[in-house]
Amino acid sequence: MPMLTSQKRPRGFATMDPQKQRAISAEGGRAAHQSGNAHEFDSAEARAAGALSHAHRRRRAASAQVQAQDISHEGPVRASPGSS
Question: For residue 10, which of 26, 1, 21, 24 has the smallest C-alpha distance?
């Protein structure tokens, strides 16, 4: 069984020359645009997506706050009969 070391050695893409990494990444970006899979937000789309994200965040925060209040209003935990 191999020994685990405290430092990990880079593998795969991380071992490549930074210029070669950039070239490979650029090819992927160009291919995504050519195939129609890439999407660039315009400012209106970005604003709508941000508003939706903030609405979800507010809803989750409100839900968590209600749950926390429900827990705090349950009262003290009582021991079962026979346990002392």
Answer: 21
Sign of torsion, CA 21 24 28 30?
Answer: positive
Q: How far apart are CA 5 and CA 58, in angstroms?
A: 43
- Predicted structure pTM score: 0.40
Q: How far apart are CA 34 and CA 38, in angstroms?
A: 8
Using DSSP, state whether 74 is helix, strand or coil: coil
The predicted-structure confidence for 19-46, as pLDDT tens digits, reads as follows: 999 999 999 999 998 998 888 889 999 9
Nearest 5°: phi and psi at 70? -60, -40
Structure tokens at 29: 């970006």
